[in-house]
Amino acid sequence: MSETRVGVAKTYKLYIGGAFPRSESGRSYQVSDTKGKFLANVAQASRKDARDAVAAARKAFPGWSGATAYNRGQVLYRVAEVMEGRRDQFIAEVATSEGTRRAQSLVDAAIDRWVWYAGWTDKIATVLGAANPVAGPYFSFTVPEPTGVVAVFAPQDSSLLGLVSVLAPVVAGGNTAVVVTSKERPLPSITLSEVLATSDVPGGVVNMLTGSAVELAPWLASHADVNALDLTGAPTILRTELEKAAAGTVKRVLRTPTTEPDWTKQPDITRLRAYLEAKTVWHPMGV
Length: 287
Description:
The chain is of the alpha/beta class. It has helices at residues 47-66, 69-85, 87-98, 103-120, 124-128, 161-172, 187-197, 213-222, 239-247, 270-274, and strands at residues 11-12, 28-32, 38-43, 130-132, 138-146, 149-153, 176-180, 206-209, 228-230, 252-254, 276-284. A five-stranded parallel β-sheet has the order 8-7-6-9-10, sandwiched between helices. Residues 29-253 form the Aldehyde dehydrogenase domain.
């Protein structure tokens, strides 16, 4: 006698401080593929969840920014290794989320891009730093330092490659991140959260919030403990208001075109530079 098995519907959680909590609001929403087929239930983050994510990012910042550039590079390269091990899962999720036949090439590009940014960690100081000429018995050096906690609004259409393209430069520079993922296509970001949790990235360095950017954006833009905003995937209708809110706490704001860029193009160091501060140090010469 045959039996019909009822599948277990997944309900994915948030990723905050290295753990996977439910939304404090208890809310979730359904995610479907491009043909309307149910895929999973996903936690819908609230204002309180966003505050918790910022607190976790702030707590993790001293350790992550204080690590050597070489160590950060090794940690981020480990993320790419784990992504490679789950390549088939990423391909399946990108294909169902984006309805594309290019899923394999997009996933491969996302892994390669993570490696590319990992390789920049110990080269940033050489490229962006300087030994400054001065008149007097002093040395003057300019060195790049991370800005702090960065709130990232991930691309809404490019569920993995776009996400990696905006997240990797933030953490490669020594910052910590609070990411609001694509609302309709969150599954690749959730799998990336699982990759981060099982690699060597310290808890709190990256925090993933699934849900509505419209709901979360104003609170992150006005949060006094957020140092920078990436508006790539922010709602176009809210961008001006978000910039005004960010000005209240003197945040850095990365402004991007209202239409998403072609993420398949090779990046440059613009996004790395966007979240770095230039620190100049004077030191007397020895006798």
